[in-house]
Model the fold of this input.
Amino acid sequence: MLRLSDPLTELKGIGDKTAQAFTAAGLLNVNDLLHHFPASYERLPELRPMAEIGGEGKVCVCGRASGFAALFHKNGRSLLQFPFEDGSARAKVTVFGMPYLKKQIVPGRELLLFAYAKRKGEQLFLTQPRFLSREEYESGIRKLTPRYPLSGALTQNQLRKAVSQALEAAEQIGEYLPEQILKERKLPGISAAIRGMHAPADMEEVYAARRRLAFDEFFLFLARMELLKEGTEKEESAYRICGGRAAAEEYVSGLPYELTAAQRRSIDEILGDMESGYMMNRLLQGDVGSGKTAVAFAAAAAVIAEGHQAVLMAPTEVLAAQHYRDARKLAEERPELSFRPVLLSSSLKAAEKREAKKRMESGEANLLIGTHALIQEAVVMKDAALVITDEQHRFGVRQRMSLSEKGKGPHVLVMSATPIPRTLGLILYGDLDISLIDELPARRLPVKNALVDESWREKLYQFMYKRILEGRQVYVICPQVEEGEDAEIRSVGEYGAELRERFPEQVRIAILHGRMKAAEKNAVMESFAAGETDILVSTTVVEVGVNVPNATVMVVENAERFGLSQLHQLRGRVGRGEHQSYCVFVAGGSAELSRRTQERLNILKETNDGFRIAEEDLKQRGPGDFFGLRQSGTPMFCIADIFTDAQLLTETKQSIQTLSRDKDQSFRKLRDILKERDLTYSEFHGICL
Done:
């Protein structure tokens, strides 16, 4: 019998080489595979003559190869092309990453293809087809077929075949919720939900399954948060910062701009907490570009003036390096602040790491900046009185707790740019004190927004080039890394190559994505920040990135694939300097999709207020809005959505309170485990056996 802990080599068709591809995607065992959920579902369309195919979209066609297949290599990947006809028209078929098909594509061979169709003039192109048997087609028009997120060398067929076998083990995932709560919340059992996501009979089953899995994700998150809050309520602190206001005010008075009233209010609330004699546990929430870092440095100045250390942990090396550069500049230009910064990250050389750790332990450095490398056991801090976590949702609860345990009960400040509506914030953060920066600096010009479709492509390129000639820089965001992953959407590699052909040689173009090594990503971002790159083509890894005031244009391709909140986060990369900035949302797909997208994205044209956008997102979205890429852009959850599932979040909170009050055994077991280690979502289900 197949077990959840079994390696994937126990499944038919997965040998050592294929298992390596699954491992590279983070799928190590059967339980991991069961928790790799579809991103969308599809039902095969009826067969159509190619002569009737107009614009873009997915189609099923039946015809024959009218020539041999030619094999090419592009950017290190294989590309197969062959001519195809069905008696009504001809097309050119392109297949990525399957060179072994070359020998099978011979003139006259009949093929049934499910492909993405696109016309360029009179020429019809069919991209990345699935080769179907007649039986597969007949089955596919009757039932839903899952489409999984792909990574590396994995294919949809490999994932589907593996998951269909793994479903045998779904019954082993034990139910941890009492029958009463399942009935009250109208939730299916956990094993039924797992099967419903992978092999649904209809969309109603998908919705029910997703609701249960979203409930579980909220449940695990809120259970972690309850533990994180334990012991922090009104607990006495070893650090009573009574003389820090003068230093904080000195830092503020030396800034080249006036702080907003919201920034000053937040600083006052933070200083009040640190003066109280009790441990501060505060969330600093502010929209992108609202000036949270200035508030954090003011708090650090207060602590450093009292002779203690302040710690700042960032989620990426790029962001940590930016904070460090800012701190170094302050130390050099304003010695009265007594800032002695040090940087610790995994990319440093061994000697540099040893030196950084030595300065932290001795107290020579008093402003400690870094990535998760700061929470390693080998890192010793002499006198950490304040720990600040930037973009807090990108760290696990255990990581944040580990950082706060480095000192003797330090004050804790977590910062977030995710615009969560206040009602949801109260549920997510409970008794955590919240400081809200709800206004942008007056010196900032509002970003001008536009929503366009493919017909504006030439004008868009002209607009980008004009800004570059003025000395400005441009971001271009694409939803995927490589061409062929999803034929309907733009990729970083494809777009970068297209721009190099479109613009003169002197226009400097670079690409950036999450599969690059940390050192490569840092080098690309630092080059862009230094003005050495004109156009940066990237995935959403720039959502949390360096501050580049000279970048004034943000182009988001396939904007319909992102949620409003994530689009707003991306837009926050521009509008940070004195020049007028622009954000252009390019909608792809059919005319019908563009109309729906227009309605949803209009709110981004109307306002730059992230909190209003979050509220509107909550009003506009429905439970079916989880197809394709993540919609909300809130990276703390993979399935659940704090906007769409706001009511479910409230119900989950109530269920936890009930289980805690009734001293439920499963809940107590979960809490005991969470005290020892942070669980992933799949591990959470795996322990309930």
Observations:
- The longest strand covers residues 110-120.
- Residues 203-229 form the longest helix (27 residues).
- Residues 245-437 form a domain with the Rossmann fold fold (CATH 3.40.50.300).
- Residues 622-635 have pLDDT under 50 and may be disordered.
